Amino acid sequence: MFTSWNDLDRTFAAFDELRRRLETPMFRSFGQLGAGGSWPRVFVEDTGNALLVTADVPGLSHKDIDLELDKGTLKISGERKVSAPEGYAVHRQERGSMKFSRSFTLPALIDPEKVSATVKDGVLTVNLEKSAAAKPRQIAVKSA
Q: pTM of the full predicted structure?
């Protein structure tokens, strides 16, 4: 039981100390990235004629993201910059600035001229159309 306000103050001070210790780089990376440790989270889907890559990129615009397609590898990179709006002060910041880069070996040949990418509502969508040689073809069967 608490007997004075000093006991309560010491208890909150202990919780603040624990929070500060858990915000060290080792523990911080677990909280930001979760299990697996890669950012942004990506989903790659084969639609038959194309590969569709979606990545969660909250708070980023098209200016913050770089895409590169080179010899069957897609590289997504960029930088998330966090700053307070003009006239405001930061009291607590749990989302920090960071640079990121992820590369994926693609399972099919891609036509580089037909690649498109958009960012909307924090989701990056990359449409990678397969080259003619990699697209599935329907083969007509004839009777003999």
A: 0.65
